[in-house]
Amino acid sequence: MEDRTAVKPRKADKVHNDKSAPEPEVEELRTLKTSRAMQKCHKLVEHFKHSPANAAELLSNCSENGQQLDPLIQDVSTRWNSTLSMITRLQRNKDALRAALDLHQQRSTAAMLTNAEFEKIKKLETLLEPCRYVTDLLGGEQYISCSVVLPALCHLFWVMEASDDDPGYVLRFKVAFTTDLSKRKESTNVQWLKVATAVDPSFKDLQCLPRSEREEVWRLIKEETAQQANKETREPEPPKKKMSLLLVASDSEDEGEAAADTSVDRYRAEPSISMEVCPLKCWSEHAGAYKSLAPLAQEYLATPATTAPCETLFSLSGHIVQKKRAALPSDNVNRLICLSNWLKEKK
After folding, report:
1. Separation CA 205–CA 164 (nearest Å)
2. Where are the domains of the chain?
């Protein structure tokens, strides 16, 4: 069976340690991670995370000053999302961290970031935030995600466009990121993603594609709907003794192609729907008006953009089935996984 998953998952974390569909970690990001500013961030978080006494003093200092402390997050070298989470929390707690370090300046091995370094990591946060948004968007399972892949990639390319105001390190990051992302896009089934985007009434204008490629997408859709229409209108083969009576060729195939073309043209002429409306629900309601196009759209849109939700369940089962729980029967494992997933959705 053909694997129609648009994007394969790699290691990535959300802010709350949920697995999601990641974006690639480019070489320039690894360089930024090893920069002086990022090393200071790592040591600063380590100073408070690895010492209960330091963590208690930081929390007490925040309470005395009427500040709310967001828990610090330590970055992991293999997960770029953890880097984004770390610098986001550091900026939120900047004043509290500075005050706590000033109280114990002599015995503290961690150093506070300068204003210039905070400006640098803030710029990095601005670059990575759209990536986190796309990661969460494509890793969702409560909505249609396959038709969002190309618009999301288009958004990332737009965000990473070089500007004359960009510092040197930002410019190098953008160039490396777009180069890497372009290679990964070429390795996906782009033609399938184009059709999936077109049959989503929210994105059927195909603004994420160049104008020169849009008509080719509609041509492919017309071909597939014509094949679907021909299958529906095809009648059972008559007995062999009556084959000699069929002196005139049937024109049902031409009629099917014409009906498919008309169906696609009517769909294109209709206004786009809001992104808040479920495309599958829309096609279900209009299946009678688009008998050949609706099944095609439902087939494409029912495919998830990534396998991240499935990978999350596999990871969850790995946490449940451990050495101490090796005797758990498979039925109980399934029940525990379902309960965990249901409780998560309830929250």
Report:
1. 31
2. 27-188, 193-234+251-301, 308-346
